[in-house]
Amino acid sequence: MSASSIISILGLSILLMYSLSKILEFYGIGINVYGSYMAFYIFILISIFILPRNYSGII
Fold it and tell me: What are the TM regions of this chain, as residue ranges (predicted)?
């Protein structure tokens, strides 16, 4: 994965999470309701960036 795609994915993810939290805050939904889902999404993003893409050396 190239540096520009990593920056794009990271930027779009931050923008999406920020806008989603502001929309939910507007409707009166607190962080205690959606916080665990957002933490799981952040975990998935970190896993995508850290884990290898192919496992050709293992087989």
Answer: 31-51
Considering its fold, how many domains does the chain have in total? 1
Asked if residue 56 is part of any domain, the answer here is no
43, part of any domain: yes
- Check residue 23 and give its pLDDT: 96
Write the Ramachandran bin of 28: left for phi over 0, alpha for psi from -120 to 50, otherwise beta.
left
Q: How far apart are CA 18 and CA 31, in angstroms?
A: 12
Given this model, what pLDDT does residue 57 score? 67
Structural domain boundaries enclosing 20: 3-50
Note the pTM of the prediction, 2 decimals. Answer: 0.73
